[in-house]
Pyrophosphate--fructose 6-phosphate 1-phosphotransferase
Amino acid sequence: MRVGVLTGGGDCPGLNAVIRAAVRKGVQDYGYSFTGFRDGWRGPLAGDIVPLDIPAVRGILPRGGTILGSSRTNPLKAENGIRRIKENLTKYEVDALIAIGGEDTLGVAARLSDEYGVPCVGVPKTIDNDLSATDYTFGFDTAVNIATEAIDRLHTTAESHMRVLVVEVMGRHAGWIALHSGLAGGANVILIPEQRFDVQQVCGWVESRFKVRYAPIVVVAEGATPKGGEMVLKDGSLDSFGHVRLSGVGEWLAKEIERRTGKEARTTVLGHVQRGGTPSAFDRWLATRFGLHAIEAVRDEAYGVMVSLRGTDVVRVPLADATAKLKTVDPKLYAEAGVFFG
Amino acid sequence: MRVGVLTGGGDCPGLNAVIRAAVRKGVQDYGYSFTGFRDGWRGPLAGDIVPLDIPAVRGILPRGGTILGSSRTNPLKAENGIRRIKENLTKYEVDALIAIGGEDTLGVAARLSDEYGVPCVGVPKTIDNDLSATDYTFGFDTAVNIATEAIDRLHTTAESHMRVLVVEVMGRHAGWIALHSGLAGGANVILIPEQRFDVQQVCGWVESRFKVRYAPIVVVAEGATPKGGEMVLKDGSLDSFGHVRLSGVGEWLAKEIERRTGKEARTTVLGHVQRGGTPSAFDRWLATRFGLHAIEAVRDEAYGVMVSLRGTDVVRVPLADATAKLKTVDPKLYAEAGVFFG
Amino acid sequence: MRVGVLTGGGDCPGLNAVIRAAVRKGVQDYGYSFTGFRDGWRGPLAGDIVPLDIPAVRGILPRGGTILGSSRTNPLKAENGIRRIKENLTKYEVDALIAIGGEDTLGVAARLSDEYGVPCVGVPKTIDNDLSATDYTFGFDTAVNIATEAIDRLHTTAESHMRVLVVEVMGRHAGWIALHSGLAGGANVILIPEQRFDVQQVCGWVESRFKVRYAPIVVVAEGATPKGGEMVLKDGSLDSFGHVRLSGVGEWLAKEIERRTGKEARTTVLGHVQRGGTPSAFDRWLATRFGLHAIEAVRDEAYGVMVSLRGTDVVRVPLADATAKLKTVDPKLYAEAGVFFG
Amino acid sequence: MRVGVLTGGGDCPGLNAVIRAAVRKGVQDYGYSFTGFRDGWRGPLAGDIVPLDIPAVRGILPRGGTILGSSRTNPLKAENGIRRIKENLTKYEVDALIAIGGEDTLGVAARLSDEYGVPCVGVPKTIDNDLSATDYTFGFDTAVNIATEAIDRLHTTAESHMRVLVVEVMGRHAGWIALHSGLAGGANVILIPEQRFDVQQVCGWVESRFKVRYAPIVVVAEGATPKGGEMVLKDGSLDSFGHVRLSGVGEWLAKEIERRTGKEARTTVLGHVQRGGTPSAFDRWLATRFGLHAIEAVRDEAYGVMVSLRGTDVVRVPLADATAKLKTVDPKLYAEAGVFFG
């Protein structure tokens, strides 16, 4: 039995932990061999492989990124993409494929598995936590910890100068990182893509915070957009909700707050710091368990499934379920956080 | 409506986050007043109170420990304990009580609620994660992160000297911290209280690690005990499994490994570092949600319940369920980790 | 003896540690009383004071920011500024003043002391490390640690996608943070305000890094500027070197690299995260010693001086020396780092 | 020109940064070749070598430990040790040797250089900071940061239970780690090997801290010893001051404090956590500069010297100076800290 492994889409802390766990268990418990494909779906498409055995995965557990590289290559859009993948799997004698990725990567795996009979097992990954059919994806906890630490640091400098600090965090279509880090960091305003914000209301919260002699921290997801049409946009494209995409909402919002409240405001854009570096303990544990269970699925010939966290259990769900619909923040959950606004 | 709040048992990162969230929501959304009781059950027993309002809870979210103090006082063992508590609740006009604690603290709340009609809501807390009826308790994730960081640091020093490093982590009756931090840290041996260990087998794992030119990390829960009778004990008491309690299993094990394998071994005892300091983002989020939901339970007059995490939802469970049985590590889960031993 | 204390200019981790040490030593060893002035020079100018005694400074050692608040108020520009300060010092019976701040704050202290006979002792503070007459200022080590951690995190994500990551760090006039964090983080390009950079040379370094199959990290101080006139400027103002000031050099540079090399580039702007939050151990130690020695200077009636770090000793230097000239990065030191470029 | 490199004695964060910097500069600027010797002086003694070139040192900057391994092998005690080293240097065509280590390792380098004409350059290393002739050694700042973080965490748990927390930190003969981390962490008692402590005085400080309703943190260096003869010793050996060596002073002291004050006390023994893992930014910067300057010394044929930090400069000092005398804590510096005791 030879198992292929690939990692697709944006990288995320914990990818290496999945790879390591799968290889350790596959080799030791079942005598499997492994082949790594380089750069997501580009690997099986182009026949670009790397050796993958126990020495290759030693010491990678705490390392961010992915030893296999990643890309956004979509084989469904490549000429004869599926046929070339099947040919390369045959050529390299790969009997089953573990695809680690987000919506796009797993969507390809679902179609390969369901429509073309390629034996795939999916492992969910996204720092945005916006994949359906799993309680959490690994990478998310790490991102939230990093954003929370940044918010912690900003409180004291904000208060020393009685300034507004705006932190722009990741989350183009879903506000999970903003919501969790905002709650954990004690932010006074949390803005998410799921709900357009009212700049005047934001300014009201900012001002009520100053009234109790504390300085406000505003956490804004990169995909959050204001109500109304007052925004000057950098790129003019449309976002997934059909309204115009913002580039640089953090900086824009800081300026708007300054203009309307007369208070100084500063912006921090954490960017890729949120997706790099060593995974949190939770993400290493989750990624490791996902790797182990992916191999169990291979052994059971349970293809077309994704491993998934449900409570404290790792279970299997159809790949198609995972990619059917983006998991966005429940309005009730967002409302729950509202008690801390202002 | 006046709500009393107390924190009992060993302290744990996140207690202050619960208190803050409960007070913020209670005051702002429902107009409740609050009374803090000092040092767990000692507070209502002795009538020792502290004022608790929004200014009192500002800025405490990221702080470890508890602004209310804690103790292991058991009112059921105090003379007229229950009567004195009821009298003090009446005296201070407290209509409902939020008890934040572990097995012992919540056990008292269960009896007060079920047998004496005192309106109690419980909030589960233990860094050991050994409370039934909730997926996780806050404090646990922080402890696991701290232990994992320590293990990360020990790998490089172990390998530079080709030594064994033994890390003793918390967990008197349950091995959750050892299991999670051991998996997350890439330990080569993980020993938990639920399963007596065979020193000779441990030495085998240690030696097989050296054979691949890596140095082994052994994570041992403070409550883990060896098979057989070869241990020299410091205090001679019996542990919860009926076998003699070890004090200093880490140090003992390091010596035993040195003696049997001829390799150098060193010990780190993390101790209270695991339970102090700022909570992880996950624990702040969980504790905050527990605080909010405890107030919802009070508003619904849902007494005799504990708030509990189920997947990503916070639900209510009978207090009695939470304290019926220690939640220990499932043997299957422990077996899953075995692939990394050696 | 009554000692006034104020903190001026941009806040910086360690300010509270200075205040605490000064108060502890003053009260305990010499029986001094203390008066805090709020918001830098605005405090003595406006007569805005806060009580300052041992209970007020308990627990503030690890906290970022300043309990006294800060501002950039310059009393030399205020009408009758000096006279009002002298009147307020008399009114509040303040016999000596400890001024904690950077170039501007200490410049005022120097003039007050030298020209108007106000008994001042200075304590140097700037995260930028650009004050002459001291080896280091506190706050700098913390900022460098934060920037270095961010760079560490960016390496793995850069390499997973073979992208350029540009990190913009603080340093408007001096490149100390960029130089130290760039060296510590293993950056492949470090750009500082002291030396205009050649975009084409930067692109050369970027490309040579890709050639060895690693992804480049570019650290750029916010005050760094390119050679030539190709920059589109946001604000058009002139910087301290007489060339036009850049706003957003990080983002500009990332775009320029993308355009010229065809490689993807991403930007992180750390912003105020670098100056907030708990100080590093070094900064707490340095700030504490500065606080103790400032009190010794008061006791010795050694006014008009600043405490300063020389090797491992804290010494006194004339206030005027500290503010005579910005301490910029020595070209030799910058050249030393060049071996790691590309 | 071929340069040999070895790392001896206890490992320490920053060793890899020295190796990397030396190799990068040697190869790129001067065209040198390198040979790594394994496990300190055992390498040249036994002729155990590893290849050392630019690819071998990529990515090791942030990694703790040493890629060359370490040991305490003393060639002066080995039969024909010096002759065998000279033979192996000749055999492997090594023209100069960079020895990175502490007192013992550099002592050997000094004798090899001064008495036997082996061209050696020393690089000082010790987490204990007890080497003369340099302001700081790398590894020390990392150890102090780790110990300080642990102390930070212990404050909140100590105060929640009004307990004494005793932290045993490294420092067998010198109290630098205890002094710096104790000051930075806000400890209430700091005990160092240089000055025997009076248990009764320690208990007095502990009690005076409780009187202001705060819980005391006691930082004790592993080599600290009490006055009088009341200690029960574990190993009975003599320490460097001629008094009997303590094993486990932290645990002993906690018990003694409990016995004398009636307060609960707990102990944390940080152990090797202090010397493992990624170096702080300061240590990476210092280690990198030491590596660069060691190569400059080789190029200048300046043998028999050690690179050393003086203020912000790296200079050369005779190897013999570095090892002549242990650098212990100046009594005046220790007295300075006394204002925070109790």
User: Anything to note?
Assistant: The CA atoms of residues 305 and 319 of chain A lie 5 Å apart.
